[in-house]
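Margin note: ligand = glutathione.
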Amino acid sequence: MLLMSTPTSPFGRKVKIAALAHGLMPRLRVETGDPWTDDTPLRSVNPLGKMPALIRPDGKAIYDSGVILAYLDTLLDAPRLFPVERRLDTLVHHALGDGIIEAGLLITYERMRRPAEYTYAPWIEHQRGKIERALERLLHDAPDPGIVDAGSITIACALGYLDWRKQVDWRAACPALVDWLDTFRDAAPAFDATKAEH
Ligand SMILES: N[C@@H](CCC(=O)N[C@@H](CS)C(=O)NCC(=O)O)C(=O)O
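Resulting structure:
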């Protein structure tokens, strides 16, 4: 299988952690994807031009990151990323983690991709509100950090992304989530192994 992503993509990191934690990494070849340039291989694989994208051994292209995780699950002896017995909770935690990353990306793109004179502060605050409310929800309803499934992986990647881009200071605001992430890191050494050098 070919995974197109970059070391810094939080959505790509989800896939790498899942593959490492569940023994699928030897079947994965990783190539750098470039979403920002015309006529790159990524765009011919995923017309949306987003990373990660995966090409199955039979040539079929799979995206987005959640669909890739669902596909990886089919390669395991039993679904471990979206376990049957807690599928709905896992999907909701996965959506919450994805939402934090998406809001974080929008803030980062606003800062880095839009010319400074067009930066729109209310939009950044709107996105920051989503992140803050999602973190607040996690204080009361987080997945078990000792279990490496799609929910815990995605929330860990979201926190890792906030650590890097600093859209909010989640460590100061939510110390309980620091403990949560430390427990996840113990359960999933793949988290530290996929930390990008920035
Ligand atoms: N829903 C997608 C989001 C993927 C995404 O937004 N990836 C970013 C990089 S982390 C990207 O490719 N951005 C370029 C763009 O939006 O054009 C997923 O889960 O894979």
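The beta strands are 2-5, 29-32, 53-55, 61-62.
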